[in-house]
Amino acid sequence: MYYDPIKKSLGEVFNRTPLLRRLFYHLLDLLLLRTWHVHRELRQWSRGRTNEPLNILDAGSGYGQYTYWLSGLSRKWQILAVDVKDDQVADSNRFFREIGRTNAQFAVQDLVLYQQPNSFDLALSVDVMEHILEDVEVFRNIHASLKDGGMLLISTPSDQGGSDVHSDGETSFIEEHVRDGYNIHEIQQKLRTAGFERIEAQYSYGEPGQVSWRLSMKYPILMLGKSKLFFLLLPFYYLLTFPLCLILNWFDANTEHQSGTGLIVKAWK
């Protein structure tokens, strides 16, 4: 299934007013399990840093929800959010101007080509690398763009069923993906090839997370892929499933997993 048309439709609905977009961000923070894991790592990274003038790269910003969350943690942080989609970049810049978040800027950039040497204290890449074939080139560019001691945080599907692929004969649930998921050792080796020396990787989306993902993401996306009329049914669907998804997300984000369909990877320059 192609996910981008559905994302575009959602953006058109929630971009109508700043209030709706803020509501959209909060819903994503609650529903998307990867956000629970990413926020946990970012809170840990940010301890004792909120009064420091730091530079952050949101590498593949999408809707801009992570830039929104980070820009609210400290006004002293300067965030550059880049994406290849002109419309999303334009929408995000307009929204951030409307709400007065002057410490964040969005720009159109190709991560395969983009490099800004020794500029950032943190780089964030959330569900991006599964879309890019030339992943080592991107890792090299981010490594070069980080300051010494800077950290790269990655969230991406694993090869343990990421993208809803569980056997060789299956194809990715999201057809925009160029790879179904990373082997945990493979991504660490690619990061070493790119120049990173200290790397930590762990699984996300264990058993609780996989159930939550099906309820909160897979089934609604399948419905919306059939017809936009399902937008009318979504509030009632989530009224039933939302409480259970919150519980499952909490358990997944607070449990260590021996295996999982997602990966959280940290790498330091």
TrEMBL record:
Mind listing the UniProt keywords for this protein, alphabetically? Membrane, Methyltransferase, Transferase, Transmembrane, Transmembrane helix
Please name the source species. Hymenobacter perfusus
Biological process terms from the Gene Ontology for this record are: methylation
Tell me which Pfam families the record gives: Methyltransf_23
Please give the name of this protein. Answer: Class I SAM-dependent methyltransferase
MF-aspect GO terms: methyltransferase activity
The record, for PANTHER family, names: TRANS-ACONITATE 2-METHYLTRANSFERASE-RELATED
SUPFAM superfamilies associated with the record = S-adenosyl-L-methionine-dependent methyltransferases
Which residue ranges does UniProt annotate as crossing the membrane? 229-251
